[in-house]
Amino acid sequence: SRLRQPPLRPVVQILKTEAKRRGWTAYRLAIETGLQAQTIRRLLGGQGSPSLDTLEAVAKALGLKLGASPE
User: Average pLDDT in the 55-61 region?
Assistant: First the structure.
């Protein structure tokens, strides 16, 4: 699974941490993003290979912005 490889794992961890901090469930994130709750559960559980669009939608719903930094 791609989530086990950098750089996605740290991104997913940040999203998961922020969702938990807000007390948001996968269902709430699904409502906020328009994605299926199952997709959110897989993402937050480190399963599957989310698209950049999915990661961006979740980040935006959480008030975060995805970005790249030079190595």
Answer: 95
